[in-house]
């Protein structure tokens, strides 16, 4: 990858972190223009268009794809690495809803390190396996969770802080999780300063160990 393009990829990730959708769009257009100036064009029967490096009639290397209304890629785009016609390596993907993923891919699936920014404003930065959050990552949707994940669910050790304005605003939990629920040993801290450290099952306290 040329040094200039590497720098743009790094800037793209920073823009996602800073919630700068306008600058992100500028970067995607820039990358598209870079590839238009040096790559081949593949036009598919469904109306999708690929611009970039090609080998044996398939996208291979760096390339950009999008599509007109009614095509497979209508309203969606991907700019990044390809191997034998599949998304593989590093790239930026945007779907019809406006969600953006920037990170590593393995044969058309988010796999490795990646940052996802949903159109709703929620985000996730961390490990992915087969399009699911898996490993360690940080999610933000008003509330914040930093910890382990297993196939899209909070599972293992993790820290959670409730969002401002919620029923439990200011409270936090640090401990074990299973299938998206507080299960195992953990410490629950109240906004009042009191805390509970003990066992949880399906998100509920089991036993009383409250400290003031």
Describe the protein's architecture and organization:
With 212 residues, the protein is an alpha+beta fold. The protein has two domains: 134 residues, Histone H3 K4-specific methyltransferase SET7/9 N-terminal domain (Single Sheet), CATH 2.20.110; 71 residues, no CATH class. It is 16% helix and 54% strand. The chain is built from two helices and 16 strands. The chain has a 16-stranded antiparallel β-sheet that branches. Helix 1 packs antiparallel against helix 2.
Short descriptors:
single chain; 212 residues; alpha+beta; Histone H3 K4-specific methyltransferase SET7/9 N-terminal domain; 16 strands
Please summarize what this structure is.
This protein is α+β, with helices and mostly antiparallel strands. 16% of the residues lie in helices and 54% in strands. It has two domains: 1-134, Histone H3 K4-specific methyltransferase SET7/9 N-terminal domain (Single Sheet); 142-212, no CATH class.
CATH topology tier name of the largest domain: Histone H3 K4-specific methyltransferase SET7/9 N-terminal domain
How many extended strands? Answer: 16
The low-confidence parts are none
Q: What series of H and E elements makes up the topology?
A: HHEEEEEEEEEEEEEEEE
Q: Number of DSSP helices?
A: 2
Question: Gyration radius, to the nearest Å?
Answer: 21 Å
The overall pLDDT, averaged over residues, is 86
Q: Label the CATH architecture of the largest domain.
A: Single Sheet
The coarse silhouette is elongated
Structural class designation = alpha+beta
* Whole-number total of structural domains: 2
The fraction of residues in strands falls at over 45%
Q: In percent, how helical is the residue content? A: 10-25%
What is the class of the largest domain in the CATH system? Mainly Beta
Roughly how many Å apart are the termini?
A: 57 Å
Largest sheet: 16 strands, antiparallel
């Amino acid at each position: 990858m040329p040094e200039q393009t590497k720098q743009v990829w790094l800037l793209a990730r920073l823009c996602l972190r800073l919630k700068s959708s306008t600058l992100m769009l500028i970067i995607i257009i820039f990358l598209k223009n870079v590839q238009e100036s040096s790559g081949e064009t593949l036009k598919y029967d469904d109306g999708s268009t690929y611009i970039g490096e090609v080998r044996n009639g398939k996208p291979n290397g760096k390339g950009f794809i999008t599509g007109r209304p009614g095509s497979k890629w209508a309203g969606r785009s991907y700019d990044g690495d390809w191997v034998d016609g599949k998304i593989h390596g590093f790239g930026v993907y945007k779907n019809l809803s406006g969600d953006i993923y920037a990170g590593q891919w393995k044969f058309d699936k988010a796999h490795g390190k990646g940052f996802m920014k949903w159109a709703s404003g929620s985000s996730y930065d961390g490990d992915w396996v087969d399009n699911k959050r898996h490993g360690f990552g940080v999610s933000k949707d008003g509330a914040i969770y930093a910890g382990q994940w297993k196939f899209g669910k909070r599972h293992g050790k993790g820290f959670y802080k409730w969002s401002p304005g919620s029923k439990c605003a200011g409270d936090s939990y640090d401990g074990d999780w299973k299938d998206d629920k507080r299960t195992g040993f953990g410490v629950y801290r109240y906004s009042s300063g009191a805390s509970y450290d003990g066992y949880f099952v399906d998100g509920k306290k089991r036993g009383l160990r409250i400290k003031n």
